[in-house]
Structure formats: structure tokens, C-alpha cells
Write a structure and sequence with these properties.
By secondary structure, this protein is mainly α. It has helices at 10-20, 31-45, 59-65, 68-73, 91-101, 108-111, and strands spanning 24-26, 54-57, 86-88. The protein has a three-stranded parallel sheet with strand order 1-2-3, with helices on both faces. The chain starts with 9 loop residues before the first helix and ends in a 5-residue tail after the last helix.
């Protein structure tokens, strides 16, 4: 208990997690998932936090669930905002995206998933 943090405000708790996060992996989910995703996207978009890799797993699901292109077409977000995140299908793709973002070498298993 002496080492735990207690936050009285939910927003402060979320901000502390984000200040320490080096990437965000988002899987298909419900309202809580959308809340977390759009909160982080907004903070990155507005420059309130440093950009981190935002990885959406399962492109087909996300494209069915959210029509992001419609947001661009209707002027709700800029076309460049679509580059704030990327779709990935596998853990290897995610690791490669994170490594690339931070200028680190991509592990060989991420380049060829059949490699030992």
C-alpha cells in the first residue's frame, strides 16, 4: 500500500499512465476502448503529449466500426490526423512499428516471422 498511487480524479490517473507509456496497443472493444483511444488521439493531435505509436489491431474491424474517412471528408479532422495511428494485424508488426518509431533496429523475427 505504501507504494501505490491513489488518484482522486480519473483524468489525472489517465494522464500519469500516458506520461509513462511508450506505445498504445488498441484491440476491438466497446465504449471504454473508444474513450481511451480517442482521448489519446486528441492529446497527440493537440500536442498535449508527445506522439507515441498508436497501434490499432485488426484493420477490418476498425474500418467497419469507425468511418474515419468520413471525419476527414466532413472536416472534423484533418487528413494528416490519419497518420497519428497505424493498423497492425500481428504482434510482430506492432513490435516493428514501435522499433521504427523510436529509431531502433527491428528484431529479425519481426521482419520474417518464420525466422527462429
Amino acid at each position: 500500500p505504501d507504494l501505490s498511487f491513489q488518484f482522486h480524479y480519473f483524468g489525472i490517473r489517465k494522464m500519469h499512465f500516458l506520461l509513462r507509456a511508450r506505445a498504445l496497443a488498441v484491440f476491438p472493444g466497446g465504449f471504454g476502448t473508444f474513450d481511451e483511444l480517442f482521448e489519446v488521439l486528441t492529446l497527440v493531435q493537440t500536442g498535449k503529449i508527445t506522439a507515441i505509436p498508436i497501434l490499432l489491431f485488426d484493420r477490418a474491424w476498425w474500418q467497419r466500426a469507425v468511418n474515419l474517412q468520413a471525419l476527414v471528408e466532413d472536416g472534423m479532422i484533418g487528413a494528416g490526423d490519419l497518420s497519428l495511428f497505424r493498423f497492425v494485424e500481428t504482434a510482430e508488426e506492432a513490435v516493428a512499428a514501435i522499433a521504427t518509431h523510436y529509431g531502433m533496429p527491428v528484431p529479425s523475427a519481426c521482419l520474417d516471422p518464420t525466422a527462429p
